[in-house]
Design brief:
This protein is an alpha+beta fold. It is built from 12 helices and 9 strands. Helices cover about 50% and strands about 15% of the residues. The longest helix has about 35 residues, at about 265-295. The termini are far apart.
Length: about 425
């Protein structure tokens, strides 16, 4: 039976004609980012990964594409829809997870923190330059001993006269060594927090009368120090860093005035998790397509690998999981655009799609045999990167408990 061929614009892995559900504008944004990835990332990513280099020279063009703060409105941001943002993240991560992470850290975390929780003056001061790629941001929440439990953070901020003084440390902070500004989350005495809240004076004490608050910290402030974490086996074409805060003194207006408590950083994490649900499918799709190309050319026992039943079973299983993940990501995007997205839905997308993407990339690697462990081919690089993506912005365990609470009504985090 002759194989049905995809249309000129539809990918062969699009088994359910998902593209037909996209508008012309959505397809246009997707294709512009895909062209950027083909031209600027694919030819070089193997070397960048091997040499552990983050290609900062790409940032200017990424800003021109409107990728920094893409889903935010005003202040020089592109103001695109959630679905358009998701499609862009899928294409970026088809190139490499580390490159997609740049956009996530800059836009979904650092810029979103200012956009969601900052004053009008803070937004005007920082967001236009960040959208233009003229200033790079980072987001300091995770600590050496407080990963999945940010409420246990040890970083503290205290008020001394007209200044805030920050002391503590953060770990696994993307872009910190090249950032111009850091959003640092710290615990503040509830009474001091109360006086800094914009609007209604409501606090959310986490323990011992303290509240988690966000601070805008220029990275040239005395006492701020960032160091690259080396010897990574994953996310090598990116930067993850340790931050040390030694009596960092900030003006009173450095605090983010809105949404005290953990709902502040969690609101930003939700934005990043949403992007991951899309991005992971980009890595998975790239691995599957690379394996399909290889199997069509690789001859074994007198015929191409793609002509064997066991190989076709692998491709079918991978394509089914890819299709389900892409449909899930699209549903998340439509719900987010409609204002009906619920927190547990993001956990469903992040947990499912990271799990599926890793398995797809690992299975795709087997198609290449021994050649699959070389940097010439993408699946194992994607699988290694996805080990980090699976961990950050909430581990499998955290998202399992979020979904479990939605199903049972019982919080089982402690």
């Amino acid at each position: 039976m002759p194989a049905e061929q995809p249309t000129p614009t539809r990918r062969r892995t699009d088994l359910m004609a998902i593209e037909s559900q996209l508008s012309a504008e959505e397809i246009g944004i997707r294709d512009r980012v895909a062209e950027f990835v083909d031209r600027r990332i694919r030819p070089h990513i193997a070397r960048w990964y091997e040499e552990a280099v983050l290609p900062t020279e790409l940032f200017g063009e990424m800003a021109e594409l409107g990728l920094f703060g893409m889903h935010l409105t005003g202040y020089g941001c592109a103001g695109r829809s959630a679905t358009e943002y998701g499609l862009a993240m899928q294409e970026l991560e088809a190139g490499d997870s580390g490159i997609r992470t740049v956009v996530s850290v800059q836009g979904s975390l650092a810029m979103s923190a200012i956009h969601k929780h900052g004053s009008e003056e803070q937004k005007q001061q920082w967001l236009p330059g960040m959208a233009a790629g003229e200033m790079i941001g980072c987001f300091g929440l995770t600590e050496p001993t407080a990963g999945s439990d940010p409420g246990a953070m040890a970083t503290r901020a205290r008020r001394e006269g007209d200044e805030w003084v920050l002391a503590g440390s953060k770990r696994w902070i993307g872009l910190a060594t090249i950032a111009d500004v850091a959003i640092i989350w710290a615990k503040v005495p509830a009474a001091e927090s109360e006086a800094a809240v914009e609007g209604e004076h409501r606090t959310s004490p986490d323990d011992a009368g303290e509240v988690v608050r966000g601070f805008i910290v220029p990275t040239d402030t005395p006492g701020f120090r960032a160091e690259v974490i080396g010897q990574k086996l994953s996310m090598r074409a990116s930067l993850q860093c340790d931050i040390t805060l030694e009596e960092v003194r900030l003006p009173a207006e450095a605090i983010l005035p809105k949404n005290p408590g953990l709902r502040g950083p969690f609101g930003c994490l939700s934005e990043a998790r949403y992007g991951i649900a899309w991005g992971a499918m980009g890595a998975a799709r790239d691995a599957l397509e690379a394996a399909l190309d290889y199997a069509a050319e690789r001859q074994q026992f007198g015929r191409p690998l793609s002509g064997y039943q066991l190989t076709q079973k692998k491709f079918t299983d991978m394509a089914l999981e890819l299709t389900k993940g892409q449909l899930l990501a699209l549903q998340l995007g439509r719900a987010k655009d409609a204002g009906t997205l619920e927190n547990h839905m993001i956990s469903v997308g992040k947990l499912n799609n990271c799990r599926a993407a890793i398995e797809i990339c690992r299975e795709a690697r087997t198609i290449f045999g021994g050649n699959g462990i070389t940097a010439e081919h993408s699946p194992l690089r994607h699988a290694n990167n996805l080990e980090s993506v699976r961990t950050y912005e909430g581990t499998d365990e955290v998202h399992t408990l979020i979904i479990g609470q939605r199903l049972t009504g019982e919080a089982a985090f402690r």
